[in-house]
Amino acid sequence: MRLQVENFKNIGKLSMELKPLTIILGPPVSGKSNLLEAIELLGFLGKLLRLDMLYRDINSFCNSEPSLREALRIDNPLEVFPWMDPQNQPKLALEAEGSAHIEASLVVEKGKLHVKYTLTRFDVSLSAETIAPIAVVGYAELSHYCKEILEESRRKLLKSLGDAGKQNSDYNLLLEQGVIEARLYGYERYAIEARLEDVLRCVHDSCMQPDILLSETGGNLAYIASISPLPLRRLQEWINEVTGGLIELKARTRDFREVIFFSREVEIPPRLVSDTIIRVLYYTLALYTAARYAKLYSLQGRVLVLLEEPEARTFPYSFELLAKSIREALDAGVYVALTTHNGVLASKLLDVVGKDELGVYYAYSGRDGYMRLREVSVDTLAEKLMLPDDLLLMKPEEVLRELGGVGEASGW
């Protein structure tokens, strides 16, 4: 899977290979999250296409999906442009073997941010012609995807696909399977800690959407936990190892859905539970449900899960559980890309993922302010007796000296 990004936030020009597992290391303020956001934007089209698979209607979709403000971390449409200069038009592209080639460009017109998508199918058994639907999100609706705009965009998109399909009865395969979708999970990004009471309790139908997949915002976490006993059991086993069974995790299914905690047979409020437990629950459910979704709908190689610093503020002993969840998602055909500041997590992942499935990149800021991305060879690390930890304890110039001949993925 190849990603290309140009003029998006602090990314000047970038071309990189996304492996089944892509790990992005590097110091703060290097643009790692911007890279995840670019993938999220490209993968939005797949979510829109498959809306009927997961949501009751467009309203459920709008209520469950993160807003553009949250997904891209912007308050002003100019913030997606380098140096807030709209003359530098952002262009994004994602291509994978056997999938539609997706391109997205962003422009500001009359104070509104427009996202224009182009879909091209290269598989001659379907259609080789370019399909160019346009999805528009106005500045006034940055706080949330606008229902009317999404409905119109989706109508145009389905009509374009349908027109192409008049000459080809297999166009439904493109509609259902040929487009990659991406979801960006970030505990801090969506302020889950501040919303714990709502996240861990589901009393309305609105928090049961999507019905098999964890929402990025965690809005349906209580419902998803109640229909996902395996990850809950594994988390409880891990809690038992760490605390000797001091904390017990349960999912209530009668009357309403709720995740509840007990300590010494007494129910305790979530705010008294270790932050590690709830963070691990969020990320492992994201991976588990993405794998379930990919298998149920035969979307192997079409689903991308993006994890933003999943190890943040968690007990390092939990990394093994996280690594196991990632391994199982990869086995189900899910692609995973994550950012991290933690070399211990990266090392743990190197132990469970083969070299052919793994891409490791080091991100840093160049002197011109643009993001630079350096591919890290696992073989080179082994030859130099280095671990990812070592890279994170060095300054960027020291890392570049050590990596020597390893290819650079971006830069002017």
Outline the fold blueprint.
Elements: E1 2-8, E2 11-17, E3 21-25, H1 32-49, H2 51-54, H3 58-64, H4 68-72, E4 91-95, E5 100-109, E6 112-121, E7 130-131, E8 134-136, H5 147-165, H6 171-178, E9 181-185, H7 196-199, E10 201-202, H8 221-226, H9 229-243, E11 247-252, E12 257-263, E13 266-268, H10 275-296, E14 303-308, H11 319-331, E15 335-340, H12 343-352, E16 358-365, E17 371-376, H13 378-383, H14 388-392, H15 396-403
Parallel strand pairs: 3-15, 3-16, 9-14, 14-15
Antiparallel strand pairs: 1-2, 1-4, 4-5, 5-6, 6-7, 6-8, 10-12, 11-12, 12-13, 16-17
Provide a brief overview of the structure.
The chain has 412 residues and is of the alpha+beta class. The chain is 36% helix and 24% strand.
